[in-house]
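Work Package 3 (structural annotation) set out to generate three-dimensional models for the target panel prioritized at the project kickoff. During this period the team completed the workflow that converts sequence records into discrete structure tokens, so that structures can be stored uniformly alongside our sequence database. As a representative example, we reproduce one entry of 221 residues exactly as it appears in the project archive.
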Amino acid sequence: MRFLLIEDNSELAQSVSDRLKLDGHAVDIAGTLADASACLQGAEYDLMLLDIMLPDGDGVSFLAQHRATNNNTPVIATTARSAISDRVSVLDAGADDYITKPFDFAELEARVRAVLRRRGGVASNTFHYHGMVFNPLNATVSFDGTDFVLRNRELRLLEILVSTPERIFSKSHLYDRLFSYSEEPSDNAIEVYVGRLRKKLEGSQVLIETVRGLGYRITHK
């Protein structure tokens, strides 16, 4: 998944980014609202982490303007403000969740998972698809009683594909979802991760199909 982290404290931003990257997410960091707007014009994000107090403006107003464009990217607001009125204002502006600084990374990760689950319309961390059981939290995929551990990028690629079975995801779309601006993946990176996933799914009813000229989709036999 690709996240946009809007945070002017560079040390905190780097710490949060490093932690999320350990889970296989791609993270772009914006230190101002102007930088955030530029990022949003150039990429599609699965989640935004938005600091409310930024040097060039108010995050609540930015969020309200963002929602006014009918953009439904999930947003978790972060701020040092703890008053109930502050929480109410940011939720009313369109935030999906709210976490007060200083926060524990484990809590942040749990809130990220919860928001992404709600976006996908599911209540569980586990996805079932034609005999395959995929657990992103444990980074495992199982079928016929056998578990396979997924590496970070394999995990996020499978997460994208199973979010909408049978949908064709273009190669460029997968690059955009899996890698941040600061990364320089090889031209065949997607093929490499697709190949690794296919090996782990061998023997199951689930297939990752190449649709020539269009991209990839997850389907079944």
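The two ends are 27 Å apart (CA to CA).
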